[in-house]
């Protein structure tokens, strides 16, 4: 559009040479604005199609699956979810949302696959990583993640199209084993010093809080925790290996 406007303007002032120059300048403007428009669409197309209410209810449904995974409803885990929504949305909105949550957790059967298929098409990968981390936080609210809870989260992660390595990395943040630091960095215990440093840079970039700045403050806090876990894992390996 701009190329024709600037072409006419150029012709008005400088005749035919001005028209050519105006056309070239206008074409450049069209290219830049078109690129910016495409970039804006790319940035927001994944998540603006999910209304806050849709996201909350789907997230609550996944919470209910994890809470019920071991065959009982733990009050500590319920309180963890409630506090999350109070911190994220305020007490009034959290109470309204939690009434729906009580109905979901007590009466309805929830399809994790259906919910995750919806979310995987509507949210960014970094957001889905944070969902998995949040679900592990719920399971760990009572101080222990049961094998049944971990298995349900693994299924949910799969439905959310989270890679097996990324799932194991997040899981290792809650299961402290001899090699959990290596699992967090997604490397083998026999990895070289160069591989360890490269893995740290990769994971620090993947879990950087800037990746979820579009989410609410509670999710950002969770991202910051993952980022700290990556740093702690790297520091532990450096200390064990004597890496400077």
Automatic annotation (TrEMBL):
<protein>
    <submittedName>
        <fullName>TerB family tellurite resistance protein</fullName>
    </submittedName>
</protein>
<feature type="domain" description="J">
    <location>
        <begin position="180"/>
        <end position="244"/>
    </location>
</feature>
<dbReference type="Pfam" id="PF00226">
    <property type="entry name" value="DnaJ"/>
</dbReference>
<dbReference type="InterPro" id="IPR050817">
    <property type="entry name" value="DjlA_DnaK_co-chaperone"/>
</dbReference>
<dbReference type="InterPro" id="IPR001623">
    <property type="entry name" value="DnaJ_domain"/>
</dbReference>
<dbReference type="InterPro" id="IPR007791">
    <property type="entry name" value="DjlA_N"/>
</dbReference>
<dbReference type="InterPro" id="IPR029024">
    <property type="entry name" value="TerB-like"/>
</dbReference>
<dbReference type="Pfam" id="PF05099">
    <property type="entry name" value="TerB"/>
</dbReference>
<dbReference type="InterPro" id="IPR036869">
    <property type="entry name" value="J_dom_sf"/>
</dbReference>
């Amino acid at each position: 559009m701009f190329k024709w406007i600037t072409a006419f303007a150029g012709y008005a002032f400088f005749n035919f040479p001005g028209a050519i120059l105006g056309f070239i300048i206008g074409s450049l403007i069209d290219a830049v604005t078109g690129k910016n428009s495409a970039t804006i669409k790319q940035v927001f197309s994944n998540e603006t199609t999910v209304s806050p209410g849709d996201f909350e209810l789907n997230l609550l449904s996944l919470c209910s699956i994890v809470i019920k995974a071991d065959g009982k409803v733990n009050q500590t885990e319920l309180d963890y979810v409630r506090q999350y929504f109070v911190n994220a949305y305020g007490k009034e909105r959290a109470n309204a949302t939690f009434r729906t949550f009580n109905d979901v957790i007590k009466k309805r059967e929830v399809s994790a696959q259906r919910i995750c298929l919806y979310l995987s098409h509507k949210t960014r990968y970094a957001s889905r990583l944070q969902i998995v981390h949040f679900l592990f936080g719920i399971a760990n609210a009572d101080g222990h993640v049961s094998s049944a809870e971990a298995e349900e989260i693994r299924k949910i992660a799969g439905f959310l199209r989270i890679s097996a390595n990324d799932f194991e990395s997040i899981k290792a943040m809650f299961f402290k084993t001899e090699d959990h630091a290596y699992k967090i960095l997604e490397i083998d215990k026999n990895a070289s010093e160069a591989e360890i440093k490269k893995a740290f840079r990769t994971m620090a970039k993947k879990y950087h809080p800037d990746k979820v700045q579009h989410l609410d403050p509670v999710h950002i806090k969770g991202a910051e925790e993952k980022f700290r876990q990556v740093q702690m894992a790297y520091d532990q390996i450096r200390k064990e290996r004597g890496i400077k």
